[in-house]
Amino acid sequence: MSLPTVVSRPTLAVWKFASCDGCQLSLLDCEDELLAVVGAVQIAHFTELSRAVQEGPFDVSLVEGSITTADDIERIRAIRQASSLLVTIGACATSGGIQALRNYADVGEYTATVYAHPEYISTLAKSTPISEHVPVDFELRGCPIDRHQLLEVITACLTGRRPVIPGHSVCQECKGRGTVCVLVAHGTPCLGPVTRAGCGALCPAVDRGCYGCFGPADTANTSSLARQLITVGTSRADVSRLFRTFNAGSPAFREESLTYDSPETGR
Amino acid sequence: MLSHMDLSASLIVDRAGLDGLLGALAARGYRTIGPVVRDGAVVQRQVSSTGDLPQGWHDEQAPGHYRLHHDDDSSLFAWAVGPESPKSEFYPARSLVWRTSSTGDVVTLEQPQQESAPAALIGSRPCELAAMRVLDRVFAGGEIPDPCYRDRREGSFVVVAECGTPAATCFCTSMGTGPGVEDGYDLALTELTSPDGPRYLVRVGSARGAEVIAEMGGSPAQPADFASRDAVLENAARRIERKLDAGNVRQLLASNLEHPRWDDVASRCLACGNCTLVCPTCFCGAVSDTTTVDGAVERHRRWDTCFDLAHSLVHTGPVRATTWSRYRQWLTHKLSTWHDQFGTSGCVGCGRCIAWCPVGIDITVEVAAIAASDGAVPVHIESGGDRS
Asked: Which fold has domain A11-159?
């Protein structure tokens, strides 16, 4: 007589690179759904949750953080090798994060200014997204990510379907929830028209402009929006700064930020 | 029943009469939805008395621009349409179509019922009434009516407020949808000024309206009151300077599908979708199925926009990958192919897409630009090249 086959639950691993841990903590923020999640998957590696870690391979890996050191490059390659599905979570992992501000500067000057012994610092000149180094199966944006979107991605991975994660503008979320447009009705600089939805339009709902923490939408006409921001009275320096925050490394935002960072040139 | 009503009975009421109207509608079980000022705009919310309405508020609108200012006057309806429209009441921005739940091997399908009380819309504008009629044809005019829309729309009560203060973005006179209205409502209000504060001419448009007007108090309207209404509407129509050549636009756009203006507008267009979302007739929706970690399946419908790349996504990619093709899709559908599909224009001239476009793209200007160089094609097409 044979024992019934034990069908093991899919294994889930959570990895950290250069980041603040906020995105992986979004998983623990899923208080109402957490029991269902841990019932559906076997958490094999998640050091914010438990010291008990298992060896790979892993069915699903969630990767937080950007690549900033040579060691990071080796580590992400090994994780990719060990993972069936690799999902990057958050602005750091998908565009290089706030630390991609170094991409606009000389990292050697930074380390010399900040550290008493910069010779101990071993870092790359640029902060780059995971997708520049290994193939990524899905990118979940946001700084931090939205936990409902994270649940949707995990559920889709478990079901074997495409996640329902729209690539359209934040404006659609404002209009859907009945938030009055802060750009049109108040003249507040807002990146919502070029920023990917997913946050639920949090900032405009509290009367603030979107600062683009989900990065560029599918088709982001940043140059047209930047011209309009100038028209409503935003200074060139502020337009440049607006595009240079948590997704400063994303190509569409980077290009506009560079266009407006000098008082002389551009559009 | 209609034959027992005197539909010509019109009243003159003061503000107390309007409060009587709100009370009478609430007593009949309606949710009274009307204009209120929130976050610097006139929007639609539940109202319980005239104290909730935008007394003394006035708007200033231009392409990509909307501002309110407040005066000490006691007008309640001296503003033009804001970003919201009756569309959101009858066709919610997001709705659950069905969900399943499973117990053991049994899967149960549940369809949500319309739970909230029917809406009484207070102060809808004539252009909005025209938009409701457009949506009626879209959602309820075919062989298979949309149940979500039908259930919400059928039980509704509409109190129109004719328009005395159009915005600079309005062009209802071009589209034949305002500033006055003669039918299609339950009750129609016209705000008239008098030394003692505003008075309201109330006209009846339905049997239900006749029942409710009987509870409003007031006095029978006199010929002078109708003359005052005429003056309000004439003055409003005179103030509307924006124009769209509605007679020719259908053919004009159909014969200018390669016009270079589409490229020009695409350089400005953000493809953010605001124009379609504030449009009182844009009806596109996206339906998606999701699963939950505990095994339920839900189907949701939400507002979609033809400016979204995913809107035309098929297995090999989006059909309309460029912004010029998506803008062209929107404008040609709204003003040209809508006639083929539904027998009318899809535009009611409310001007929302002009004011609420973050970069102020103006459809009347775009149409005029195409008309001014009717038949033009981009240089590369003229020389036999491919557009893409």
From this structure: Rossmann fold (3.40.50)
